Known about the structure:
Blueprint: E1 2-10, H1 26-36, E2 41-44, H2 45-49, E3 60-63, E4 75-77, H3 80-88, E5 94-97, H4 101-107, E6 113-119, H5 126-142, E7 149-154, E8 157-163, H6 176-188, E9 197-202, H7 206-214, E10 219-224, E11 249-251, H8 256-272
Parallel strand pairs: 1-5, 1-6, 2-3, 2-5, 3-4, 9-10, 10-11
Antiparallel strand pairs: 7-8, 7-9
Amino acid sequence: xxxxxxxxxxxxxxxxxxxxxxxxxxxxxxxxxxxxxxxxxxxxxxxxxxxxxxxxxxxxxxxxxxxxxxxxxxxxxxxxxxxxxxxxxxxxxxxxxxxxxxxxxxxxxxxxxxxxxxxxxxxxxxxxxxxxxxxxxxxxxxxxxxxxxxxxxxxxxxxxxxxxxxxxxxxxxxxxxxxxxxxxxxxxxxxxxxxxxxxxxxxxxxxxxxxxxxxxxxxxxxxxxxxxxxxxxxxxxxxxxxxxxxxxxxxxxxxxxxxxxxxxxxxxxxxxxxxxxxxxxxx
Length: 283
């Protein structure tokens, strides 16, 4: 059984913007169809939903954590491992993994072949913005701050980027998200960030979730979950509260592995140095 990745990427390795292909290339679309026809296709939920319907002539296998998710004729699985197992049960000699970015990263250790179409352009997409947030987190690490980074983007432009500075500024509100939101509001000369998206490496706390709501941010992408201090999918689940007047679309787990590893390394270093970092993930 051959496990293959099929992907188109720009020269700076962007594969999508706002969960959509940022180009329409008839030649590449025909290549994709000819290459994958009759083979099972394993993909994440957001990739599947960007297709506006299942891929015909191929068994669609969708990875999602949503337990009640369903689509006619589609196999729903909770993990890449389960997706590959379901694909192996099909009568085929090759399995195709079709994205998105996090699924590709998880698949790399088991992949036999990559079909790559290189699109000769430079774009900024979801992976790019989270990459910039991770760079801000690493800079926070170097300042001996808890390594969390954030980016506010509008379209393909970065409006603001920041890392945690609570120690440096002696300010408990100086979380990466708060600093990035403030900077973006100054850039736009207004208190609302309508149509803008926030990328942050760690699930926001209740304070930051409140600021996200008040700023009217369109989408929230975050990396690692925070069981102790998070307030989006953990804890208070701020955006589900009746007193929350605006809730962004939420996309968890973007760059989760790298974000979580950076946090683990930071707290390990603090323990080895015998330096308390505070009771929660942020302090």
